[in-house]
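Shipment paperwork, digital attachment
Item: protein structure file
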Amino acid sequence: MGFMSVRSFRQAAISAGEGVEEKREEMRDRIDVYREKAVKRKDNLQKEYNAYYKEEKTNIDNFKSIATKLGEDYVPMLNSFVGGDSSKLKALDGMDINAARLELDKYKDAVGGTNFITSRQESIGLKKEELDTQLQNQVGLFKGTSSLFTRDIERRGAKDIETEVGTLDTKTIDGKFNAGRGIGIKESLKLSEVMNNNKIYQNYFMDELNDVGERTNNRIVNPDYAQDVANIDQQVAEMITNGFNGTNTQAIAEVIEMLNNPSYKGPNLSFLTQASDDAPIIAIVQQEFEKNLIDRNVTGMQEDISTLSTVGRESEAEELQKRLDEFLIAEQNLTIEDVVERKKEEQKDYEAPEGKLDSLRTDKPKYNRKYKDVLPFSEWMDLSPEAVREIYDRLRKEERGEEKSGTDKVKEALGL
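Attachment content:
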């Protein structure tokens, strides 16, 4: 085989160069085509996103419109009713507002589920991610189709397309929303309504009959409505102890209106949860606290503080808490001698069970001479098994040098 002449080599080189340039030109044309397709794809995806956003914004606007009519108190129930299904809004949209409230009252116990506005915002976000992925896939379609001689053109082309196409234009919806009080919310009772509600209450009672079936002129609760009466009476009592200055008749009317008409927002209903400055409950709880303090009943004192806090009397609750804290600190410093004296005082009227000699009871710890200086035999005889056991247990713990927290010391001293 002979060598290629210089002329032939030059012609071959020129031919090869022309082939490379032709491939590079083809790659440039392909990039233009892909750019065109990517831009068109973005336009279509943008339209799809805009349509989806518009639909979801309409759903959110409908939700807000219905919620504004219902009132803020009904928003949790509206969320439970609708969930994430916007089609359910249509069922309420054309409904009378009071009828809608009655329907949503069925969902009182189901609150705490999906927040409709939040779910729609999340749905829009997911749609954006889905469409962005589709767009990026379109942008990168031609990647990896180049040869050694066209790879630089592919890189530049990919960068140019990504820059030109960019990302989808998106929008956000503000999730902050307060529905307000709602329209057509009833806030007061007419005298006729007060009287009518009390008739409803009286219908829960019946004539009492004696053993021979004669009326006794007494009215008693109809057993079929015993729970209803108990519920009403309890809430009426709460209103009065929280400072409601109206009559018992008015309080009954308020409670029955609330039970029969959940959208009723009479201001007197605030006495169900908030106590006024002159509310009887304040003095009642304070007196109970004093008794519990004398009895060293920590649990009782804590319950008293919680009661005042529950009805919004934080200043009074804080004052009692301060006194309880001082009491607990004092209790931490009790000595075993203090505890023995306290138990003796508590047990001064103790008597052994009839027919049993207390010193021989198997459930009473045997007298321990080791502790005679703290608990002499005569005092041991006068104390109950429970009191002796508590004192001996404490003495043994002190002997072992067991470290105790302040809370443990208080519990021991109180016999808890």
